[in-house]
Write a structure and sequence with these properties.
Layout lengths: L1 E6 L3 H16 L3 E3 L7 E6 L4 H17 L4 E6 H5 L2 H4 L5 E3 L7 H9 L9 E2 L19 E8 L10 H5 L3 E2 L2 H9 L7 E6 L6 E2 L2 E2 L1 H8 L5 E4 L9 H7 L8 E3 L7 H7 L5 H14 L4 E8 L6 H14 L3 E6 L7 H5 L5 H25 L2 E10 L2 E6 L4 E4 L9 E10 L2 E6 L2
Parallel strand pairs: 1-2, 1-3, 3-4, 4-5, 5-6, 7-9, 9-12, 13-14, 14-15, 18-20
Antiparallel strand pairs: 7-8, 10-11, 16-17, 16-19, 17-18, 19-20
Length: 423
């Protein structure tokens, strides 16, 4: 019996899917995470935007094109939010965010049945403590390590705290044990979670301690994301002393307008955010600073959008991830603010995206050299990322894959930079 595990959405979802794949392999199942012919499909869904939910539903039809008689299991944020949208698709089993590893029991039951499971839907209550039954089998050059789940921020536009629950942290020793067991070929650890900044040890801020512990391993350390609240001088100064830390900060902005930030229930204003960026650059002058921006937030005026545009240009991010606002039923923003015309959202998206391309090019041109982890071969080029997150295309021998090389950065190229290995 062949099982295909498909993942939509964030790195946390990917980590959880990889954990499921690993356990299924241990049980002797044939498993893939590439969409192909299979007997059972597990679809790990996303609900961060309306488009993400739509893609989650569409994945069902894509799977059935490969095998119309396959059995389909749905899990994740979209099914936690709204089971009915999947019931209508006549899938075989629906669960939500919590206790995804119980899907293995469902697969065992489906394996021996030509009909639906005895119980074809189970949405568990969200746990109060970190669910520590997931360890992903890391087979890549870069390993994702999940340290935390849930979020307490309740931004007015975001549905995730309602679907993932309150913030809960993984025990430090369990993280260290997973890292100790990583294959020797893995060169980089990416720390991930729903809100990594809120990681705690014994109910006290613990991210700095965790990073110090991880720095003892001979692997690059990268944070998947951060919140502005953790950017204090003592923390950034400590990061600058870690020999393996990658100076790439994904610091979510969402808007450069203080008035919009207030409606978003973000706990900073544009001036505070700018000060945090300046502090990072004090210790990491060539840090890659990427961010998320939502355009077309409800009632966002032309003036407020221009404030975001000017803020982004002045800060000079290395790259933006731009999203058009998507109303999420159940959030504060969906209840009290009036949505904007989609045409306005699209127009603002395009304007900001043009600026994004300009800033990305400027950042690449500032960098003359870099230290690149070669991850794969893409047509005629070796491809990997510098520590400050510039994607580099390099001519070289395939035996460099999985190694770290020093390069000279030549010029912007494709979605990154053309580079050559320093001899």
């Amino acid at each position: 019996m062949k099982i295909c595990v498909m993942t939509l959405g964030c790195k946390v979802n990917k980590y959880e899917s990889d954990s499921l794949v690993y356990e299924l392999l241990l049980k002797g199942y044939e498993v893939t995470d590439v969409l192909e012919v299979a007997d059972i499909y597990v679809i790990n869904t996303c609900a961060v935007t309306g488009e993400a939910e739509k893609k989650s539903r569409q994945m069902i039809a894509r799977c059935r094109k490969y095998n119309k008689n396959s059995k389909i299991i749905i899990c994740g944020c979209a099914s936690q939010k709204n089971q009915q949208q999947f019931r209508e698709k006549n899938v075989d089993y629906i669960t939500g965010v919590a206790y995804k590893m119980k899907i293995i029991d469902v697969i065992d039951e489906l394996k021996n049945s030509i009909t639906l499971c005895a119980e074809n839907e189970k949405i568990f209550n969200l746990p109060d403590v970190y669910e520590n039954n997931m360890i992903a089998k890391q087979t890549r050059i870069r390993a994702y390590i999940k340290i935390q789940d849930g979020c307490n921020n309740f931004c007015s536009y975001c549905i995730i705290p309602y679907l993932r629950g309150r913030s809960r942290s993984r025990v430090l020793n369990e993280i260290i044990n997973e890292v100790e067991k990583l294959d020797k070929g893995i060169q980089e650890i990416v720390i991930t979670g729903i809100n990594v900044t809120d990681y705690k040890i014994d109910n006290k801020p613990g991210l700095e301690t965790l990073l110090e512990k991880l720095d003892k391993f001979n692997k690059r350390i990268r944070l998947s994301s951060m919140e502005e609240s953790i950017v204090e001088e003592s923390f950034i100064k400590k990061l600058s002393t870690l020999k393996n830390f990658c100076p790439h900060f994904h610091l979510s902005l969402q808007s450069g307008s203080s008035s919009v930030l207030k409606r978003m229930n973000r706990h900073y204003n544009s001036e505070q955010f700018s000060n945090s960026i300046n502090l990072i650059r004090k210790y990491f002058p060539l840090a890659g600073i990427t961010t998320d921006v939502i355009v077309g937030f409800p009632e966002e005026s032309d003036e407020e959008f221009l404030q975001t545009l000017h803020f982004v240009e002045n800060v000079k991010f290395s790259q933006l991830h731009i999203f058009q606002y998507s109303s999420r039923e159940g959030t504060i923003a969906s209840k009290i603010y009036k949505d904007l015309d989609p045409v306005v959202k699209q127009r603002r998206f395009l304007v900001l995206d043009d600026l994004n391309k300009k800033l990305k090019k400027e950042f690449i041109l500032k960098n003359k050299e870099g230290c690149v982890l070669i991850e794969e071969k893409n047509q005629d080029f070796l491809v990997g990322y510098t520590k400050n997150y510039i994607k580099c295309y390099i001519k070289g021998d395939d035996n460099l894959i999985g190694t770290v090389v020093n390069v000279s950065i030549i010029e912007p190229f494709k979605d990154g930079a053309l580079a050559k290995v320093n001899i």
